[in-house]
Amino acid sequence: MIEWIEYAKIAGAFLGACGIATLAKLYHDKVVTGKDTELKIKEAEITRLEADLLKVQSRVKSAEEDSVPGHRDLIRLRAQLTEMIESLAGTLRAQAASLYIPVFNAGDEKTASPRSFAFVAAWNMDPGATAAILKMKLVESWTIVGECWDKAALIGSNNLQANVRHVASYDKQSGFVPMHTLVSPVRWQGRQIGIVQVFNKTLPGNAYGLDEHGFQSNDRRQLLETLQETSDAGMAGTLHYFQSNPETMRVLGLQDELNLENAVIMYVDLTQSSALFDELPLIDAARLINRFSQNIYKRIGPFSGIVEKFNGDGTLIRFHYVGFDSHVPMSNPVLRAICAAAELLGGFKAFKAQRWQGLAADVAEAVKLRITIALGPVVSTNMGPQQFQTPTAMGQCVNRSAKMVTFAPRDRDVMLVDDNMGKALKQIDEHYVAALTAFDSWSSDTARQSPSLAGHRYFEVTPELFRLAAMEFHQPPYAQAP
Q1: Which of 7, 87, 332, 380 stands 20 to 30 A from 26 (CA)?
Q2: Would you indicate the residue range of the signal peptide (predicted)?
Q3: Beta strand 414-418 pairing with 368-383
Q4: pLDDT in tens, 159-190
């Protein structure tokens, strides 16, 4: 009997402890749940306050700019356009929307292809992303926006991350990941004046849940119907008045950007050329290198390449977009540059045999040719003191091409291009992509820490396909440089 009582006491104590533990667990869960709810409420409040702060900052900036009479109307028109694209995004259940106008280089004819496109207005469900997008100011002409302008037709893509025209660096800057998009021209009185783009179709009643089907035919129809509004107060009419104001580029912060242009930048470099100076007197070695410089000048001429600078055994060459017609592949500076490089690379051994006669065969064989090509915006300007200035090109793609040639392999003839070139080639003809091989075999590991090379991918080019294209280029109707 006593033992039974002892067992009962133990069992009671155990059950009591379990009960207390259960109550403690329930209390803990309640507290944690309450704290989570409080945190979510505070996060939502912080997001709201950030949005309010951005609006206040925008109003302050607008008030400052309103003091300039030439800006007042533009600020108001831009605010109206922002409201319109936000409304359009809501109508289409999109997470973001942007409105662009074409940007031409200073002095360009407006019938030419735009160099890039400027953000007139942007809306994103995340106010921080909107601010980051507007700071970017421009999107490049080889994006899907440029494709829409060239085709003058609505374009849809529900797998934008896999689209060759999508630029992932924009996602990194904005923090917004677009999956679906619809892009359409904005027309005023039958003339194309801008581009509108919406991103990420959402589920009904859920602004954060994406519709797995993306934008469908009814969304296309709805977008086109919205853009058919022809009144002065519609999106097209408002954008027309905004764009036609002579202060437009200044208000968008782009007055200095008009001196930029897209260009293809090529570096041609002889490596192991010190073998020439070890083998020959200085004057004779310099003479051989100069013969190669003459060879470069001769070969790039038919492809409308402009020699910017000879620097020892290195050469900087630029290919302009002047005369570019998206319907004529051979007018594209991307194709012209890579065809010129293929001819230089393919004829290098023959050049050495014919023009470096008298040089020992093993010394000539040791000298290799490295060619690197990058695509992007550059500025052409005169550099140097006022008494002695020389024209040059500057920009990130110039730095990128220079770093590529610095770290390119030194043991073989090689041609490297950046991913901008790869995308542009694919837009010309997808068959060209077969001649590109992903490249990461730099001559030094320090290349991976180079800021000029960061954020891009690189490819080694097999030149034969482009040598064949170059042969076509030398035939009519392309015999004359575009």
Answers
A1: 7
A2: none
A3: parallel
A4: 999 888 888 888 988 999 999 999 999 999 98
